[in-house]
Amino acid sequence: MTLTLLQLQPLTPALLDAALELDQLCFGGLWTRDGYQRELDSSSSHFLVLNAVEPAGEAEADTSSSPTKSGLLVGLGCFWSILEEAHITILGVHPQYQSQGLGQLLLYALLRDACHGKLEWATLEVRPSNQAALALYRKFGFKEAGRRRRYYKDTDEDALILWCSGLQTPEFQGVLANCRQLLGDRLALYGWQLSEDWDVPHVTS
């Protein structure tokens, strides 16, 4: 089986169109182009994308549904660095490739970079109905800390506020190390291969 290469990289201006397209697929248009541009311009925003790259010499039919399509954006995630907090603002995976470990890879990378940046805790909002996302966040130690009433305007659904503290503790570093060890094998089951530099932090300590 040919494995499709996954590359983690910061969002760049050249990837804005692809990010907007993926946003539409994942969230129905959560952020505008101006919103994404503000993330690029902000020094407190840390935005990663997950790109699926067709291996050289292994070209196949170019179809929009194929993960081997060269340069297909399959995931995106962002956190804002606020004092000692990583506020995760967006985390999305292409609907066709969900439940394959890509969300776990993105969340791992965001939290790894937050740790590398010396941040102490992380927080985010999630729909109570999104059981898959809740299960993922709980794997990393997120716990419910509150609720924002009617937070999601499209459905008037509440948002659960999740917190994960102690990012610099040995216990949390162990959680990250365990996730890192398991990621490669899980992704390979679905035809994905991690690039050699996938675990290089994208922030300076």
Low-confidence residue ranges? 58-69
Q: Which descriptor suits the 3D outline? A: globular
Instruction: Please give the CATH class.
Output: Alpha Beta
Q: What topology, given as strand order, has the largest sheet?
A: 6-7-5-4-3-2-1-8
| CATH homologous superfamily assignment | Gcn5-related N-acetyltransferase (GNAT)
Q: How far is the first residue's CA from the last residue's CA?
A: 39 Å
Query: Into how many domains do the coordinates divide?
Result: 1
CATH architecture: 3-Layer(aba) Sandwich
Number of helices: 5
Return the string of H and E elements: EHHEEEHEHEEHE
In which range does the helix fraction lie? 25-40%
Describe the fold and architecture.
With 205 residues, the protein is an alpha+beta fold. It has a single domain (4-194), classed as Aminopeptidase. 32% of the residues lie in helices and 31% in strands. It is built from five helices and eight strands; from the N terminus they run E-H-H-E-E-E-H-E-H-E-E-H-E. It has helices at residues 16-27, 33-41, 102-116, 131-139, 170-189, and strands spanning 4-10, 45-53, 72-82, 85-93, 121-126, 143-152, 157-164, 192-194. It has an eight-stranded mixed sheet, with helices on both faces. Helix 3 (102-116) runs antiparallel to helix 5. The radius of gyration is 17 Å and the shape is globular. Residues 58-69 have low confidence and may be disordered.
